[in-house]
């Protein structure tokens, strides 16, 4: 059994998609990041970085209980564990390259674009423009790569596509005000349509839907999500 520490945000969505695609048995453990539950000692024992997603595989290699945190690490772990949605040996370098492109570029810049467009104080136009333009650049890199191919790596759907799906699924929020965020990126639109057409995608989007996650963006939420912006309590 896999314990899946979850909040309905882009990075956990990638793991939900893999779990549903692979048909693995798992238990959802809600972590309400707007309430600061990611900072609890019990969760920090699983992910010292205080972020979701994380998993604990109680039947890991050798029968040991294994913790894995960071969405890219979890995707690689699950692909290796199950032999599903991985790539051929000759495509391994390509897979790692695109996973890290998403993990170090597309994902973080998308997150910062959201932060500066929705959460940061007004007047930070430079930061808004910087992150928005970098998201667009990353979109263009991936869109260009996808020209003439169905999937990001090789000829089959893989964890690279799942990883991209997590943040691309929030494109309308990332590219604030865009009527069609994929208008300039037809290959990304095609990729998203192909993944969304898979039954597992709908099931992944429904993960955690019954849990009453906090949705109010109040002072508690800001302190929970952005603790480095606040001085430590005396």
TrEMBL record:
Family annotation (Pfam families)? GST_C_2, GST_N
List each copy of the GST C-terminal domain by range: 88-216
- Signal peptide positions are none
Please name the PROSITE patterns in this protein's record: GST_CTER, GST_NTER
What CDD domains does the record point to? Answer: GST_N_Ure2p_like (cd03048)
Q: Which InterPro entries match?
A: Glutathione-S-Trfase_C-like, Glutathione-S-Trfase_C_sf, Glutathione_S-Trfase, Glutathione_S-Trfase_N, Thioredoxin-like_sf
Using the record's annotation, list all stretches that form the GST N-terminal domain: 1-86
Name of the protein described by the UniProt record: Glutathione S-transferase C-terminal domain-containing protein
Could you tell me which species this protein originates from? Methyloraptor flagellatus
